[in-house]
């Protein structure tokens, strides 16, 4: 078969297979072009999940008349200098518009500030028409109709209109977070309108934009991140461990303002939360990495979602270290969503609202106003010896006396078992212990809330942290093997392991090179007991090859520490004295990450007085 030159249309359609995967890919490319043009207002309109119509309008600088044809030509761009390593714009490849035009009906209208009118150009299935004059305001309008009409086989792989519309919303939200000074709006017959108003630059504007996308709960459950190492700066917000999700869709990462889905960044996030969140839960984070463009390659894939760092170990270490340090310094915090979930559980339990007819009878007990006086309430607690009944002692007097005696006996028992806590304890984050329920839950009181603590989960975290500190602060005891075990490995893996031999020795693992293709294991950590040495060494070699760290062994040791903590902690069902309960609360306040146990479950829930009053209809 003879070799022949492909036509320009076929070349663009092949490129479109990589750049334009679905309607959301088109929106991403067009929105990025608008941002690069300096737009401050971007409108997106879709129909049929983007398959029938995508229209992106902006108020950017526009495209000059004599450059319109170049804008839809392959490998033509205004965003790249002669240095391919100095990329400072979101787009730079010059492939998006010609790829879109080759598989759809593309219309481009644009007007620069100096021009008397705008100009329009059309590309239908790769066939160019125009440019010709058209009336319009400044900026650019890109309209894409009948996506993939020129390659109908691609339409078979599209999802439902609702799914494609949702993917478009997700793409816009991810881009919008990085540019809070730009207003984004999405509308169309296939969706609910979405308007993300501009919030301004700076950390305050950024946090407000993030709350627009992730919800108002996120700022209340997030910790600010700001760290720098060797010219790489990391900023953003990390959710507290108790504020997590069932998937990773609410994890956002940006490199020099570009939204990315980089496996190494996701791995670093998992590592930072490894021992504070369960494996099947995911933290909510928004991270921004800023570094010299020469230190990162964004030209790995045409979609520009993957990146490669020149020093991946530096980036991973910065992310893990910054998040862990922020979590450690944030003190003890419970997710605000925990109280809301608890309130919803009460509501689902069947607590009926007071009907209008009965509301009047309950008005004295339920209504709250500034003149409310508990001494005058008919529902106040018993305080004095009940008065004699008017009939000389009947059923009412008997019941009242019984209730009074029971309340007095309960109060006396409480005073005997629980001394009045000092007032200063009420101002502590977890307050003063008041009671123990079902021999497992500690109820404490602060100045404005009620706290319920799972004593087993809380003490499990305290023991686990103590074990980790002991493990990582000094070398672990090692047991020498009577006969060294030889593990055959590729030569490059042997070199990596030997380079980390000193670090591995701190964890009780003694290794040395045994020829060019083998490792001799002479010592193993005592606390691990009998282990599969061959599997351990191979897993470590794979871990070091991927991340150039020895985190694999640390994870094993942390897992052992977690198991020891679980069996060595205060068990459910153990009765605690008041001093023991208060001591546990104070240790929780001093221990980083004590808001969750080492399995990722919350250790306590806090209910504000306002939440409790809502349950009783007082608010």
Automatic annotation (TrEMBL):
Function recorded in the entry: This protein is involved in the repair of mismatches in DNA. It is required for dam-dependent methyl-directed DNA mismatch repair. May act as a 'molecular matchmaker', a protein that promotes the formation of a stable complex between two or more DNA-binding proteins in an ATP-dependent manner without itself being part of a final effector complex.
Protein name per the record: DNA mismatch repair protein MutL
GO cellular component, one term: mismatch repair complex
SUPFAM superfamilies according to UniProt: ATPase domain of HSP90 chaperone/DNA topoisomerase II/histidine kinase (SSF55874), DNA mismatch repair protein MutL (SSF118116), Ribosomal protein S5 domain 2-like (SSF54211)
Domain MutL C-terminal dimerisation: 433-576
Superkingdom assignment: Bacteria
Entry similarity comment: Belongs to the DNA mismatch repair MutL/HexB family.
One GO molecular-function entry: ATP-dependent DNA damage sensor activity
